[in-house]
Amino acid sequence: MNLAIRDIRHNAGRFLLTCAGLSLLLGVVLSMIGIYRGLVADALGIARAPGAQVWIVEARSRGPFAEASRIPGDTREAVARISGVNQAGAVTYQNIEAHFRGLALRLFVVGFEPGRPGGPSVLAGGRQITRSHFELIADEKSGLALGDVIILGRNRFQVVGTTRGQVATGGDPVAYISLQDSQKLQFDLSPAAQRREQARGAGGASNDIVNAVLATLTPNSSVSAVTETVRRWKHLNALSQDEQEAILSRSVVEMARRQIGLFTSILMLVSTVIIALIIYTLTIDKLREIATLKLIGAPDSTIVGLIIQQALAMGAIGFAIGVALVLLAKDNFPRRVIIEAADVGMIGIVVFGVCVIASGLGVRLALKVDPAKALGG
Protein backbone atom coordinates (compact mmCIF):
# COMPACT_ATOMS: atom_id res chain seq x y z
CA MET A 1 0.00 0.00 0.00
CA ASN A 2 1.16 3.56 -0.69
CA LEU A 3 3.03 4.92 2.35
CA ALA A 4 1.19 8.27 2.20
CA ILE A 5 -2.22 6.55 2.28
CA ARG A 6 -1.10 4.25 5.09
CA ASP A 7 0.04 7.25 7.15
CA ILE A 8 -3.19 9.15 6.45
CA ARG A 9 -5.25 6.15 7.57
CA HIS A 10 -3.16 5.98 10.73
CA ASN A 11 -4.11 9.61 11.59
CA ALA A 12 -7.41 9.78 9.70
CA GLY A 13 -9.32 11.89 12.24
CA ARG A 14 -6.63 14.50 12.56
CA PHE A 15 -6.03 14.57 8.81
CA LEU A 16 -9.72 15.00 7.92
CA LEU A 17 -10.19 17.69 10.57
CA THR A 18 -7.25 19.57 9.10
CA CYS A 19 -8.75 19.18 5.61
CA ALA A 20 -12.08 20.56 6.88
CA GLY A 21 -10.36 23.67 8.28
CA LEU A 22 -8.41 24.14 5.07
CA SER A 23 -11.58 23.76 3.02
CA LEU A 24 -13.17 26.72 4.82
CA LEU A 25 -10.15 28.86 4.02
CA LEU A 26 -10.10 27.83 0.36
CA GLY A 27 -13.88 28.30 0.23
CA VAL A 28 -13.44 31.90 1.32
CA VAL A 29 -10.81 32.39 -1.41
CA LEU A 30 -13.19 31.05 -4.05
CA SER A 31 -16.06 33.11 -2.63
CA MET A 32 -14.03 36.31 -2.95
CA ILE A 33 -13.44 35.63 -6.64
CA GLY A 34 -17.14 34.78 -7.07
CA ILE A 35 -18.14 38.04 -5.37
CA TYR A 36 -15.94 39.99 -7.79
CA ARG A 37 -17.49 38.18 -10.75
CA GLY A 38 -20.89 39.06 -9.31
CA LEU A 39 -19.94 42.73 -8.96
CA VAL A 40 -18.92 42.90 -12.62
CA ALA A 41 -22.06 41.05 -13.73
CA ASP A 42 -24.29 43.40 -11.71
CA ALA A 43 -22.52 46.48 -13.09
CA LEU A 44 -22.79 45.30 -16.68
CA GLY A 45 -26.32 43.99 -16.23
CA ILE A 46 -27.79 47.40 -15.42
CA ALA A 47 -26.05 48.87 -18.49
CA ARG A 48 -27.11 46.04 -20.80
CA ALA A 49 -30.74 45.85 -19.67
CA PRO A 50 -32.02 48.69 -21.93
CA GLY A 51 -30.39 47.21 -25.05
CA ALA A 52 -29.01 50.62 -26.07
CA GLN A 53 -26.19 51.10 -28.58
CA VAL A 54 -25.32 54.74 -27.84
CA TRP A 55 -25.43 56.66 -24.52
CA ILE A 56 -25.74 60.46 -24.75
CA VAL A 57 -24.72 62.24 -21.54
CA GLU A 58 -23.52 65.61 -20.31
CA ALA A 59 -20.33 66.98 -21.90
CA ARG A 60 -17.10 65.66 -20.32
CA SER A 61 -19.11 63.11 -18.34
CA ARG A 62 -18.39 59.38 -18.54
CA GLY A 63 -21.98 58.30 -18.13
CA PRO A 64 -24.65 58.20 -15.46
CA PHE A 65 -23.04 55.35 -13.51
CA ALA A 66 -19.56 56.84 -13.16
CA GLU A 67 -20.20 60.61 -12.93
CA ALA A 68 -23.04 63.07 -12.56
CA SER A 69 -24.85 63.81 -15.81
CA ARG A 70 -27.77 66.23 -16.22
CA ILE A 71 -29.06 67.20 -19.64
CA PRO A 72 -32.33 68.79 -20.83
CA GLY A 73 -35.18 66.37 -21.42
CA ASP A 74 -35.76 67.63 -24.98
CA THR A 75 -32.32 66.31 -25.96
CA ARG A 76 -34.14 63.11 -26.84
CA GLU A 77 -35.93 64.81 -29.78
CA ALA A 78 -32.64 66.17 -31.09
CA VAL A 79 -30.95 62.77 -30.86
CA ALA A 80 -33.90 61.02 -32.54
CA ARG A 81 -33.40 63.22 -35.64
CA ILE A 82 -29.78 62.14 -36.17
CA SER A 83 -29.28 59.99 -39.27
CA GLY A 84 -28.98 56.32 -38.32
CA VAL A 85 -30.85 56.58 -35.00
CA ASN A 86 -33.83 54.22 -34.84
CA GLN A 87 -35.20 55.09 -31.39
CA ALA A 88 -34.16 57.38 -28.54
CA GLY A 89 -35.38 57.42 -24.95
CA ALA A 90 -34.57 59.61 -21.95
CA VAL A 91 -33.73 58.01 -18.61
CA THR A 92 -33.01 59.03 -15.03
CA TYR A 93 -31.21 57.09 -12.31
CA GLN A 94 -31.42 57.61 -8.56
CA ASN A 95 -31.05 55.72 -5.29
CA ILE A 96 -34.03 55.82 -2.94
CA GLU A 97 -34.69 54.42 0.50
CA ALA A 98 -38.37 53.63 1.04
CA HIS A 99 -40.25 51.68 3.65
CA PHE A 100 -42.15 48.50 2.90
CA ARG A 101 -43.94 46.44 5.53
CA GLY A 102 -42.17 48.32 8.28
CA LEU A 103 -38.66 47.74 6.92
CA ALA A 104 -36.29 50.06 5.09
CA LEU A 105 -35.92 49.12 1.43
CA ARG A 106 -33.21 50.62 -0.77
CA LEU A 107 -33.98 50.76 -4.48
CA PHE A 108 -32.12 51.91 -7.56
CA VAL A 109 -34.93 53.67 -9.42
CA VAL A 110 -34.78 53.97 -13.21
CA GLY A 111 -37.13 56.41 -14.90
CA PHE A 112 -37.84 55.70 -18.56
CA GLU A 113 -40.33 56.43 -21.29
CA PRO A 114 -42.49 53.34 -21.89
CA GLY A 115 -42.09 52.10 -25.45
CA ARG A 116 -38.64 53.70 -25.80
CA PRO A 117 -35.13 52.47 -24.92
CA GLY A 118 -34.40 52.54 -21.19
CA GLY A 119 -36.87 50.07 -19.73
CA PRO A 120 -36.48 46.37 -18.99
CA SER A 121 -36.45 44.27 -22.14
CA VAL A 122 -37.41 41.03 -20.35
CA LEU A 123 -39.84 40.56 -17.46
CA ALA A 124 -39.96 37.67 -15.02
CA GLY A 125 -43.65 38.30 -14.36
CA GLY A 126 -46.53 40.75 -14.86
CA ARG A 127 -46.54 43.33 -17.62
CA GLN A 128 -44.78 46.46 -18.84
CA ILE A 129 -45.75 49.92 -17.58
CA THR A 130 -48.66 51.20 -19.66
CA ARG A 131 -49.85 54.20 -17.61
CA SER A 132 -47.98 57.48 -17.27
CA HIS A 133 -48.08 57.49 -13.49
CA PHE A 134 -47.87 55.37 -10.37
CA GLU A 135 -46.92 52.00 -11.87
CA LEU A 136 -43.68 50.25 -11.01
CA ILE A 137 -41.63 47.26 -12.17
CA ALA A 138 -39.43 45.84 -9.41
CA ASP A 139 -36.72 43.23 -9.30
CA GLU A 140 -37.60 40.07 -7.38
CA LYS A 141 -34.67 40.68 -5.02
CA SER A 142 -36.51 43.70 -3.58
CA GLY A 143 -39.16 41.43 -2.07
CA LEU A 144 -41.91 43.31 -3.91
CA ALA A 145 -44.51 41.14 -5.63
CA LEU A 146 -47.18 41.81 -8.22
CA GLY A 147 -49.97 43.95 -6.75
CA ASP A 148 -47.89 45.32 -3.87
CA VAL A 149 -48.11 49.05 -3.22
CA ILE A 150 -45.11 51.08 -2.07
CA ILE A 151 -44.75 54.79 -1.31
CA LEU A 152 -41.94 56.60 -3.14
CA GLY A 153 -41.68 60.27 -2.29
CA ARG A 154 -45.22 61.53 -1.88
CA ASN A 155 -46.92 59.04 -4.20
CA ARG A 156 -48.08 55.43 -4.05
CA PHE A 157 -46.87 53.04 -6.74
CA GLN A 158 -48.35 49.67 -7.61
CA VAL A 159 -46.08 46.82 -8.75
CA VAL A 160 -47.26 45.66 -12.19
CA GLY A 161 -44.19 43.69 -13.29
CA THR A 162 -41.08 42.01 -11.98
CA THR A 163 -37.56 41.42 -13.27
CA ARG A 164 -34.95 38.91 -12.18
CA GLY A 165 -31.26 39.48 -11.43
CA GLN A 166 -31.21 43.25 -12.00
CA VAL A 167 -29.29 45.12 -9.30
CA ALA A 168 -27.16 48.26 -9.32
CA THR A 169 -23.41 48.37 -8.74
CA GLY A 170 -24.11 48.98 -5.04
CA GLY A 171 -26.27 45.87 -4.79
CA ASP A 172 -29.61 47.70 -4.56
CA PRO A 173 -32.41 46.02 -6.55
CA VAL A 174 -33.61 47.96 -9.59
CA ALA A 175 -37.12 49.45 -9.87
CA TYR A 176 -38.52 51.01 -13.04
CA ILE A 177 -41.08 53.83 -13.09
CA SER A 178 -42.20 56.27 -15.78
CA LEU A 179 -39.94 59.20 -16.64
CA GLN A 180 -42.49 61.77 -15.45
CA ASP A 181 -42.78 60.09 -12.06
CA SER A 182 -39.02 59.79 -11.69
CA GLN A 183 -38.48 63.46 -12.56
CA LYS A 184 -41.04 64.51 -9.94
CA LEU A 185 -39.42 62.11 -7.46
CA GLN A 186 -35.93 63.45 -8.15
CA PHE A 187 -36.42 67.14 -8.78
CA ASP A 188 -39.69 68.27 -7.16
CA LEU A 189 -39.22 70.25 -3.96
CA SER A 190 -41.18 69.62 -0.80
CA PRO A 191 -43.99 72.15 -0.07
CA ALA A 192 -41.88 73.92 2.56
CA ALA A 193 -38.92 74.17 0.18
CA GLN A 194 -41.20 75.45 -2.61
CA ARG A 195 -42.54 78.22 -0.35
CA ARG A 196 -38.99 79.17 0.59
CA GLU A 197 -37.91 79.31 -3.08
CA GLN A 198 -40.99 81.40 -4.00
CA ALA A 199 -40.26 83.79 -1.13
CA ARG A 200 -36.74 84.37 -2.45
CA GLY A 201 -38.06 84.74 -6.02
CA ALA A 202 -36.30 81.66 -7.39
CA GLY A 203 -39.30 79.47 -8.15
CA GLY A 204 -40.52 78.25 -11.51
CA ALA A 205 -37.46 76.24 -12.60
CA SER A 206 -38.27 73.36 -14.97
CA ASN A 207 -37.73 69.81 -13.81
CA ASP A 208 -37.47 68.44 -17.35
CA ILE A 209 -33.98 67.13 -16.65
CA VAL A 210 -32.71 63.63 -17.45
CA ASN A 211 -29.44 61.83 -16.75
CA ALA A 212 -28.93 60.32 -20.20
CA VAL A 213 -30.55 59.62 -23.54
CA LEU A 214 -30.26 56.10 -24.90
CA ALA A 215 -30.37 55.40 -28.61
CA THR A 216 -30.73 52.32 -30.76
CA LEU A 217 -29.59 52.45 -34.37
CA THR A 218 -31.04 51.28 -37.64
CA PRO A 219 -29.42 48.24 -39.30
CA ASN A 220 -26.06 48.95 -40.98
CA SER A 221 -25.72 52.30 -39.18
CA SER A 222 -22.34 53.16 -37.73
CA VAL A 223 -22.10 53.63 -33.96
CA SER A 224 -18.94 55.70 -34.34
CA ALA A 225 -20.61 58.02 -36.87
CA VAL A 226 -23.51 58.72 -34.49
CA THR A 227 -21.24 59.27 -31.48
CA GLU A 228 -19.01 61.65 -33.47
CA THR A 229 -22.06 63.61 -34.62
CA VAL A 230 -23.23 64.07 -31.02
CA ARG A 231 -19.76 65.03 -29.76
CA ARG A 232 -19.58 67.83 -32.32
CA TRP A 233 -22.43 69.52 -30.47
CA LYS A 234 -19.92 70.36 -27.68
CA HIS A 235 -22.52 70.44 -24.89
CA LEU A 236 -23.05 66.67 -25.02
CA ASN A 237 -20.91 63.55 -24.91
CA ALA A 238 -21.72 60.20 -26.54
CA LEU A 239 -20.50 56.75 -25.55
CA SER A 240 -20.94 53.48 -27.36
CA GLN A 241 -22.25 50.49 -25.42
CA ASP A 242 -18.76 48.97 -25.38
CA GLU A 243 -17.28 52.19 -23.95
CA GLN A 244 -19.98 52.31 -21.27
CA GLU A 245 -19.28 48.72 -20.25
CA ALA A 246 -15.53 49.37 -20.19
CA ILE A 247 -16.05 52.33 -17.82
CA LEU A 248 -18.19 50.20 -15.53
CA SER A 249 -15.85 47.20 -15.44
CA ARG A 250 -12.54 49.10 -15.28
CA SER A 251 -13.48 52.19 -13.30
CA VAL A 252 -16.62 51.79 -11.19
CA VAL A 253 -15.65 48.37 -9.78
CA GLU A 254 -11.88 48.93 -10.01
CA MET A 255 -11.41 49.59 -6.28
CA ALA A 256 -13.48 46.53 -5.42
CA ARG A 257 -11.34 44.47 -7.81
CA ARG A 258 -8.11 45.66 -6.17
CA GLN A 259 -9.39 45.10 -2.65
CA ILE A 260 -10.73 41.62 -3.40
CA GLY A 261 -7.52 40.75 -5.25
CA LEU A 262 -5.40 41.85 -2.29
CA PHE A 263 -7.59 39.99 0.18
CA THR A 264 -7.48 36.84 -1.97
CA SER A 265 -3.68 37.02 -2.17
CA ILE A 266 -3.45 37.34 1.61
CA LEU A 267 -5.73 34.34 2.07
CA MET A 268 -3.63 32.26 -0.32
CA LEU A 269 -0.49 33.25 1.60
CA VAL A 270 -2.17 32.27 4.87
CA SER A 271 -3.21 28.95 3.31
CA THR A 272 0.39 28.30 2.26
CA VAL A 273 1.67 28.98 5.78
CA ILE A 274 -1.03 26.78 7.36
CA ILE A 275 -0.36 23.87 5.00
CA ALA A 276 3.39 24.21 5.59
CA LEU A 277 2.93 24.17 9.39
CA ILE A 278 0.57 21.19 9.24
CA ILE A 279 2.90 19.16 7.00
CA TYR A 280 5.87 20.12 9.19
CA THR A 281 4.00 18.98 12.31
CA LEU A 282 2.94 15.71 10.69
CA THR A 283 6.55 15.11 9.64
CA ILE A 284 7.80 15.71 13.19
CA ASP A 285 5.29 13.14 14.47
CA LYS A 286 6.75 10.42 12.23
CA LEU A 287 10.47 11.14 12.41
CA ARG A 288 11.13 7.68 13.91
CA GLU A 289 9.24 6.00 11.05
CA ILE A 290 11.22 8.02 8.52
CA ALA A 291 14.46 7.08 10.24
CA THR A 292 13.41 3.42 10.06
CA LEU A 293 12.78 3.76 6.33
CA LYS A 294 16.25 5.20 5.88
CA LEU A 295 17.75 2.45 8.00
CA ILE A 296 16.25 -0.30 5.83
CA GLY A 297 17.56 1.44 2.71
CA ALA A 298 14.55 3.32 1.42
CA PRO A 299 15.66 5.97 -1.12
CA ASP A 300 15.13 9.68 -0.43
CA SER A 301 12.60 9.83 -3.29
CA THR A 302 10.30 7.50 -1.33
CA ILE A 303 10.41 9.75 1.73
CA VAL A 304 9.98 12.92 -0.31
CA GLY A 305 7.06 11.32 -2.16
CA LEU A 306 5.42 10.40 1.15
CA ILE A 307 5.42 14.02 2.34
CA ILE A 308 4.45 15.66 -0.97
CA GLN A 309 1.64 13.17 -1.57
CA GLN A 310 0.23 13.91 1.87
CA ALA A 311 0.33 17.65 1.15
CA LEU A 312 -1.37 17.16 -2.22
CA ALA A 313 -4.02 14.91 -0.70
CA MET A 314 -4.71 17.52 1.95
CA GLY A 315 -4.99 20.27 -0.68
CA ALA A 316 -7.20 18.18 -3.00
CA ILE A 317 -9.63 17.10 -0.27
CA GLY A 318 -9.76 20.59 1.29
CA PHE A 319 -10.27 22.20 -2.12
CA ALA A 320 -13.03 19.75 -3.12
CA ILE A 321 -14.92 20.33 0.14
CA GLY A 322 -14.41 24.11 -0.18
CA VAL A 323 -15.84 24.14 -3.73
CA ALA A 324 -18.83 22.07 -2.62
CA LEU A 325 -19.54 24.40 0.31
CA VAL A 326 -19.39 27.51 -1.87
CA LEU A 327 -21.66 25.99 -4.52
CA LEU A 328 -24.19 25.09 -1.84
CA ALA A 329 -24.08 28.49 -0.10
CA LYS A 330 -23.60 30.94 -2.98
CA ASP A 331 -27.31 31.63 -3.47
CA ASN A 332 -27.63 32.73 0.17
CA PHE A 333 -25.04 35.52 -0.07
CA PRO A 334 -26.41 39.10 0.12
CA ARG A 335 -24.64 39.92 -3.17
CA ARG A 336 -24.52 37.81 -6.30
CA VAL A 337 -21.75 35.20 -6.31
CA ILE A 338 -20.77 33.73 -9.68
CA ILE A 339 -18.54 30.66 -9.68
CA GLU A 340 -17.02 30.03 -13.10
CA ALA A 341 -15.35 26.77 -14.09
CA ALA A 342 -12.25 28.68 -15.24
CA ASP A 343 -11.85 30.25 -11.78
CA VAL A 344 -12.25 26.87 -10.07
CA GLY A 345 -9.59 25.41 -12.36
CA MET A 346 -7.22 28.34 -11.78
CA ILE A 347 -7.58 28.13 -7.98
CA GLY A 348 -7.10 24.36 -8.18
CA ILE A 349 -3.77 24.83 -10.00
CA VAL A 350 -2.71 27.47 -7.45
CA VAL A 351 -3.60 25.11 -4.57
CA PHE A 352 -1.53 22.37 -6.24
CA GLY A 353 1.47 24.70 -6.41
CA VAL A 354 0.90 25.94 -2.86
CA CYS A 355 0.88 22.34 -1.54
CA VAL A 356 4.16 21.51 -3.31
CA ILE A 357 5.80 24.69 -1.98
CA ALA A 358 4.38 24.23 1.53
CA SER A 359 5.74 20.68 1.75
CA GLY A 360 9.27 22.06 1.38
CA LEU A 361 9.78 22.48 5.15
CA GLY A 362 8.65 18.92 5.85
CA VAL A 363 10.86 17.51 3.08
CA ARG A 364 13.88 19.40 4.39
CA LEU A 365 13.26 18.08 7.91
CA ALA A 366 12.76 14.51 6.70
CA LEU A 367 15.97 14.48 4.65
CA LYS A 368 17.98 15.63 7.69
CA VAL A 369 16.77 12.75 9.87
CA ASP A 370 19.59 10.48 11.04
CA PRO A 371 18.84 6.75 10.42
CA ALA A 372 20.35 6.01 13.85
CA LYS A 373 17.35 7.74 15.38
CA ALA A 374 15.36 4.57 14.63
CA LEU A 375 17.56 2.70 17.12
CA GLY A 376 17.42 5.42 19.78
CA GLY A 377 14.99 5.69 22.72
TrEMBL record:
Transmembrane segments: 15-36, 260-283, 303-329, 341-367
Swiss-Prot/TrEMBL keywords: Cell membrane, Membrane, Transmembrane, Transmembrane helix, Transport
All residue ranges annotated as the ABC3 transporter permease C-terminal domain in the record: 262-371
Limits of the MacB-like periplasmic core domain: 16-231
Highest taxon listed in the record's lineage: Bacteria
Keyword RNA-binding appears in the UniProt entry: no
GO cellular component terms given for this protein: plasma membrane
Membrane topology field: Multi-pass membrane protein
Localization in the cell: Cell membrane
Listed name of the protein: FtsX-like permease family protein
